[in-house]
Amino acid sequence: MLSIVGLHYNPKYWDKPHAFRPERFLGEYNRDAFFPFAAGPRACMGRRFSEIEALTLLANLVLNYKFSGTKLHTSETPEQVAARVLGWRMGPITLHPAKASFTFIKRES
Length: 109
Ligand code: HEM
Fold this sequence. Notes:
Blueprint: H1 4-8, H2 47-64, E1 65-68, H3 78-85, E2 88-90, E3 95-97, E4 103-106
Antiparallel strand pairs: 1-4, 2-3
The protein binds protoporphyrin IX containing FE.
C-alpha cells in the first residue's frame, strides 16, 4: 500500500515539500511522485469531474471578484508575510491554510 501523503511530502522527490509553491508544477516535475487520484484500475473515477469543477470555481471567482491580499505590516519583511499567510495546519483529511486572509470585492457587472 502506498502512502499518498508520505509521497507528496517526501523531500527525496520534492524540493521544500511543505512550501506552498504551485509554480513547481509549471516546469518539469516528477510525475511518478504526484499521485493525488491514485492510478491503475482502482484510480479515482471523479478525477476529470473534480479537476473541471475546481477550474470552474476558480474561473468564476476571478470573473466575479477582485482579490486583495493581506496588507504588509510595516514591521514585517516579505518573508515574514509569506510565512504568516502561507502557513498550514493539518485538517481532518487534508492540509489547509492556517491563516490566509483575503478580501473578496465584488466586481461591477
Ligand atoms: C479533489 C478531489 C478528489 C480526490 C483528490 C480524489 C482522490 C481519490 C483517490 C486517491 C482514490 C483511490 C482511493 C483508494 O485507492 O482507495 C479515489 C477513488 C475514487 N473516487 Fe475520488 N477523488 C476526488 C474526487 C472524486 C469525485 C468528485 C468523485 C465522484 C464524483 C470521486 C469518485 C471516486 C470513486 C468512485 C473512487 C473509487 C474508484 C474504485 O475504487 O474503483 N472522487 N479518489
